[in-house]
């Protein structure tokens, strides 16, 4: 790498030694990223996130001692988040497509999931994508996952009611998976203006990223058709 930007620091979490070593070789071979630690269960993963401050965690969903869902929940506990100097992103690794446990992990703060059979290039791109604050699965797939868990409408919280009309319009577009470019065209504004609105929405709703906007929208029955 050129040295202008630090490597993306990756923590690998999986109970299978062979799988961990294989993924480590793949990640370390990519430009701009490196493995800073490995863990065999969720308990060790939570401890190493606190100790090593990785940028991205590749988290197996099914493990002994503590599974990936509970580990993700603990990693994103408010006290831990507040103590960090920079954000950490979690990508869940699973053998099942549209895994209900993966949906729960996303609700707890994960930025999406990958199938364990993914290619090295897909893995590399996923790490870069979540490091930038985006999801690693299509909005339609994320919506399908979340719709399985949230069916009854819920009264919107006061923070959502406090959004401006334009912010609600942007919120709705983000929740349906539109990019900043698509949202800009829709509301007849510049992309920088859209980014400003998204930032205001995240701040007002106390959310971390766009993925959490999608989760919030489904939790409170705010997804329009």
TrEMBL record:
The keyword Chloroplast does not apply. SUPFAM superfamilies: CheY-like (SSF52172). Transmembrane segments: none annotated. Residues 156-221 form the HTH luxR-type domain. It comes from the Bacteria. The modification 4-aspartylphosphate is found at residue 60. PANTHER family: TRANSCRIPTIONAL REGULATORY PROTEIN NARL-RELATED, TWO-COMPONENT RESPONSE REGULATOR. This is Response regulator.
């Amino acid at each position: 790498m050129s040295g202008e930007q630090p490597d993306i620091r990756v923590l690998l979490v999986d109970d299978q030694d062979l799988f961990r070593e294989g993924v480590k070789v793949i990640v370390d071979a990519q430009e701009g990223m490196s493995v800073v630690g490995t863990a065999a269960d969720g308990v060790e993963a939570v401890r190493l996130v606190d100790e090593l401050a990785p940028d991205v965690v590749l988290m197996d969903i099914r493990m002994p001692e503590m599974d990936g869902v509970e580990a993700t929940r603990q990693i994103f506990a408010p006290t831990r988040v507040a103590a960090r100097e920079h954000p950490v992103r979690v990508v869940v690794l699973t053998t099942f497509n549209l895994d209900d446990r993966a949906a729960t992990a996303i609700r707890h703060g994960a930025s999406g999931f990958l199938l364990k059979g993914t290619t090295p290039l897909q893995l590399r791109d996923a790490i870069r994508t979540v490091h930038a604050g985006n999801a690693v699965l299509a909005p339609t797939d994320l919506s399908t996952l979340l719709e399985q868990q949230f069916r009854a409408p819920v009264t919107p919280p006061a923070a959502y009611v406090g959004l401006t009309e334009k912010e609600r319009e942007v919120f709705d577009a983000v929740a349906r998976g539109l990019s900043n470019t698509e949202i800009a065209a829709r509301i007849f504004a510049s992309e920088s203006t859209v980014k400003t609105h998204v930032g205001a929405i995240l701040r007002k709703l106390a959310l971390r990223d766009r993925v959490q906007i999608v989760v919030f929208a489904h939790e409170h029955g705010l997804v329009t058709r």
